[in-house]
Amino acid sequence: MTELDAALIFDITLRTLAVCLPALAASLLIGLPLAIALGRRRFRGRGTLVGLVNAGMGAPPVVVGLVGALLLWRSGPLGALELMYTPGAMVLTQIVIALPFVVGITLAAVGALDEDWEMQVRTLGVPARWRLWLLLREIRLGLFAAVIAALGGILSEVGAVMMVGGNLEGETRVLTTAIMMFTQMGEFEVAMGLAAVLVGLTLLLAGLLTAVQQGGRA
Questions:
Q1: If DSSP codes are grouped into helix, strand and coil, which group holds residue 143?
Q2: Where residue 112 sits, what CATH number does that domain have?
Q3: Does residue 156 lie within any of the structural domains?
Q4: What is the model's pTM?
Q5: pLDDT tens track of the chain, all 218 residues?
Q6: Residue 101 · residue 30 · CB < 8 Å
Q7: Hey, which end of the chain has fewer CB within 10 Å, N or C?
């Protein structure tokens, strides 16, 4: 592999992270409060919301990409934003993909707590401002699993980001779309290099999750 190929792989990797990490951060900011509210409160329509979250976890990403493209297209409802074929469109699409994972897995972790957990915390006299911190500490393993699942889902996605990003060189080309393109072009050495980076990131995520799980058990 030449120095030019190595520089190309490095550039695409940085662009991939520049798209995935903001999408993950936004998903956490939106998803964590929603998951905690769904897990700790009972209200009319809760079952419907939980069902939508579960359906979202299994939704085909390419369908998410199609809906995003229809919304962001010039003649679409959000066409005036001019986000089509930009990193912003890719971030928005990845938020939609990651959000159900964050909400669903975090909700399961909150639901696994003892039913009288909140009463115990109040009985101990824990101030209200610390209760959320204690809750996050109790569900930290499930929360970390949600982060890994969400990031893994958007990091490996190709169809949705291709549809709204267009795989433009130097702008919206990320690891998954680049691997597909270079494979179709017959440039297997570059494709293998990109694939190695993607697999490496995936293994890193798996290693972090395993370390946290084992540490939590200890």
A1: helix
A2: 1.10.3720.10
A3: yes
A4: 0.88
A5: 676 678 889 999 999 999 999 999 999 999 999 998 888 777 888 888 889 998 999 889 999 999 999 999 999 999 999 999 999 999 999 999 999 999 999 999 888 777 776 777 777 777 767 777 787 888 888 888 898 889 888 988 888 999 999 999 989 999 999 999 999 999 999 999 999 999 998 888 878 777 776 765 55
A6: no
A7: C
Specify the number of domains making up the chain.
Answer: 1
CB 88, CB 73: distance < 8 Å: no
For residue 92, give every residue at least 6 positions away whose Cβ sits within 8 Å of its Cβ, in sequence order, or none: 23, 68, 72, 83, 164
* Rounded CA Rg of the chain: 20
Tell me if 185 sits within 8 A of 128, measured CB to CB.
no
Looking at the domain assignment, is residue 218 inside a domain?
Answer: no
- Those residues whose C-beta lies under 8 Å from the C-beta of residue 105, and which sit 6 or more positions away, are 142, 143, 145, 146, 149
Residue 94 in domain: yes
> Which of 92, 102, 20 lies closest to 53, judged by CA?
102
CA distance 49 to 193: 42
Residues 6 or more apart whose CB falls under 8 angstroms from that of 27 comprise 95, 98, 99, 101, 102, 150
| Domain encompassing residue 34 | 3-213
Place of tokens 């929603």: 34
d(CA 213, CA 216): 5
